[in-house]
């Protein structure tokens, strides 16, 4: 049972409003729903009764509320004790990642790090994940979250956090290329693609084009940043092969306009944290790296 899930649950048990709690906890409503569902599945009990107009807590939810308050209180006491033991580590740590990674992968590590080293100032910069390695090589960031590039520089260390599944995203609304897309054998050569400029995703897409003998794909646009590509698909500009996590963390009004058409076209790739090897001797970077491992 995740401490963050319990904190979210406690907030929702007070507001009785998914939208308000999602905004206050800096997560999307769909993420909030998944966290509550995860708690309900682990307990085998319904915690909230919800319909289009109201949210009310169940008897099982009331019991969990008492338990969660005690656990969160104990956890806060533990944080205070750990803070006192580790107050000596001070300074600044700069991180770089995509907007999506800031929601999907960074919080788990950053939560632990801030508990252990509360006096370290975190500076987060977001941008195109494909630029992550160059950002740390130029010292614009101390560490970065990114997909593992095809050719990792020898001066860079990479630790895997997980795998990123690629999916094909298509517009939900009818478009000029719908007939070509929904044939028994889609006419890929005449379907417009929106592509990332570079990075692990683009490498796998180019390889998929090659494997399917699409030598001159119809490219609507190349875009820096996966999040913008999702919006362009929603507008009906074309289709896109992108990490599934980008779609999952997109605004609900965007996701409603998109269909995840296929998840088996392209192999997943590794996502993790990268850093210059020579900088692992620095105390703050070493502390964060140890948590990542």
Description:
The protein has helices at residues 3-15, 18-24, 29-43, 59-85, 99-104, 106-116, 132-137, 178-181, 200-211, 226-234, 244-248, 252-255, 283-292, and strands spanning 48-50, 55-57, 91-97, 120-126, 143-147, 156-164, 166-171, 193-196, 219-223, 240-243, 258-262, 269-276. It is of the alpha/beta class. The strands form 4 sheets. Strands 4-3-5-12-6 form a 5-stranded mixed beta sheet. A 3-stranded antiparallel beta sheet has the order 10-7-11. Strands 1-2 form a two-stranded antiparallel sheet. α1 (3-15) packs across α3 (29-43) and α6 crosses α13. The longest helix is centred in the N-terminal third of the chain and has 27 residues, at 59-85.
Keyphrases for this structure?
D-Maltodextrin-Binding Protein, domain 2, Arc Repressor Mutant, subunit A, 293 residues, 5-stranded mixed beta sheet
């Amino acid at each position: 049972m995740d401490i963050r899930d319990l904190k979210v649950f406690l907030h929702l048990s007070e507001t009785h409003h998914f939208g308000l709690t999602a905004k206050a906890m800096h997560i999307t409503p769909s993420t909030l729903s998944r966290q509550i569902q995860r708690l309900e599945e682990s307990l085998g009990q319904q915690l909230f009764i919800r319909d289009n107009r109201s949210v009310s807590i169940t008897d099982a939810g009331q019991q969990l509320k008492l338990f969660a308050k005690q656990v969160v209180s104990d956890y806060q006491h533990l944080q205070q004790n750990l803070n006192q033991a580790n107050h000596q580590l001070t300074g600044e740590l700069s991180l770089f990642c995509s907007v999506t990674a800031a929601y999907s992968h960074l919080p788990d590590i950053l939560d632990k790090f801030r508990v252990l080293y509360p006096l370290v100032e975190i500076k987060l910069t977001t941008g195109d994940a494909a630029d992550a390695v160059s950002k740390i090589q130029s010292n614009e960031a101390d560490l970065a979250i990114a997909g593992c590039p095809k050719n990792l520089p020898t001066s860079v260390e990479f630790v895997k956090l997980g795998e990123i599944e690629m999916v094909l995203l298509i517009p939900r609304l009818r478009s000029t290329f719908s007939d070509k897309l929904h044939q028994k054998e889609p006419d890929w050569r005449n379907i417009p693609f929106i592509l990332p400029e570079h990075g692990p995703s683009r490498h796998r897409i180019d390889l998929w084009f090659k494997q399917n003998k699409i030598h001159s794909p119809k490219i609507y646009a190349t875009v820096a940043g996966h999040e913008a590509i999702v919006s362009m698909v929603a507008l009906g500009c074309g289709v896109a092969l992108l990490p599934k996590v980008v779609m999952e963390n997109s605004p609900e009004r965007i996701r409603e306009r998109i269909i995840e058409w296929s998840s088996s076209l392209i192999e997943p790739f590794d996502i993790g944290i990268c850093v210059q090897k020579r900088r692992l001797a620095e105390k703050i970077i070493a502390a964060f790296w140890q948590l990542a491992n």
